Amino acid sequence: MLKIRVIVVDRTRSPFLKQGESFYLDRLRRYARLEWVEVKPAKIRKGGTADKVLALEGTSISKRLLPRDYIIALDRAGKSYDSEGFAGRIQKLSITQGRLTFVVGGPLGLSTELLNGANEILSLSRFTLTHEMSRLLFLEQLYRAFTIINNEKYHK
Amino acid sequence: MLKIRVIVVDRTRSPFLKQGESFYLDRLRRYARLEWVEVKPAKIRKGGTADKVLALEGTSISKRLLPRDYIIALDRAGKSYDSEGFAGRIQKLSITQGRLTFVVGGPLGLSTELLNGANEILSLSRFTLTHEMSRLLFLEQLYRAFTIINNEKYHK
């Protein structure tokens, strides 16, 4: 069974998005050994910059990465897929990699350093999304990908 | 105040997506006179085709359209925007139109006839989304558009 780690910054605060996350995480566990890792968000201090926050969060994320992790970072400027294309990519990676690590940033996204170090950068949408909404959309598409790979029915 | 009608097929069944809808509908009412219209989904009868279902639902939707409605239909193959571009489009339309009517289909989408009759076709994502997820993403982006138009803060 494919191992998937999802590293996210901060816990989800919106009650309905939290419920949606649990909904898809439960369903995803039929297809993958899924681990959900939440790292603490960096506090924005007086005089602190966005870069500083991203660097601090990048350090927290890096500590949770394992050697030889295949890292797929989520960023609006990354590669976009349609659902079939994304399923195809996941299927291919599940053959060549034992474990996939997805990284989803906080409100400010991910540091350039972290994005540069990723194996792939995935874009979920041209729209700017809240980081909590990104998680839901990501989990829904990952779930959909497995139903496509397994040729299962999934209502539109 | 801009009038916005959103015509959708069927009620939302997922509890968390229903909550998310209410969350954004409440917030949208600060910016627009919003009307949410649910039409009944067509039943898929033995030997019935997708085209038949879409035609029936198209008729139900057409009955709820008003003369001179400016219709924006949602379809994956439509025009995609980033959030700023979408906000710009809404702002422009709010000047030229008194009322905007968005149409969101059911599980099978919208009929070709309805899409052909729309003034614009909007694509939310390259991904295939459930029709319930489409509604949430749409409402969130519409809300975001108004915060952009009004130069208000909205957390990422």
Q: What would you note in describing this structure?
A:
Two copies of one chain form a homodimer. Chain A has a five-stranded parallel β-sheet with strand order 2-1-4-3-5. With 156 residues, chain A is of the alpha/beta class. Chain A has a single domain, classed as SPOUT methyltransferase, trefoil knot domain (Alpha/beta knot), CATH 3.40.1280. In chain A, helix 1 (15-28) links the parallel strand 1 and strand 2 (32-39). Chain A is globular and about 55 Å long. Chain A has helices at residues 15-28, 50-63, 83-96, 112-117, 131-149, and strands at residues 2-9, 32-39, 70-79, 99-104, 120-122. Chain A binds chain B through residues 14-17, 19-20, 23, 80-83, 86, 107-109, 124-131, 133, 137, 140-141, 144, 155-156, and chain B through 14-17, 19-20, 23, 80-83, 86, 107-109, 124-131, 133, 137, 140-141, 144, 155-156.
Defining traits:
homodimer, 156 residues, alpha/beta, Alpha/beta knot, 5-stranded parallel β-sheet, 5 helices
Mean pLDDT across the residues of chain A is 94
Structural class of chain A: alpha/beta
- Do you know the CATH topology of chain A? Alpha/beta knot
| Known CATH architecture of chain A | 3-Layer(aba) Sandwich
The helical percent of chain A reads 40-55%
The strand count of chain A comes to: 5
Q: Biggest interface and its residues per chain? A: A-B, 30 and 30 residues
The CATH superfamily of chain A appears as: SPOUT methyltransferase, trefoil knot domain
Write down the secondary-structure element order of chain A.
EHEHEHEHEH
How large, in whole angstroms, is the Cα Rg of chain A?
A: 15 Å
The figure for the number of domains of chain A is 1
End-to-end Cα distance of chain A, whole Å, is 26 Å
Low-confidence stretches of chain A: none
Sum up the overall morphology of chain A in one term.
globular
Strand content of chain A: 15-25%
CATH class of chain A: Alpha Beta
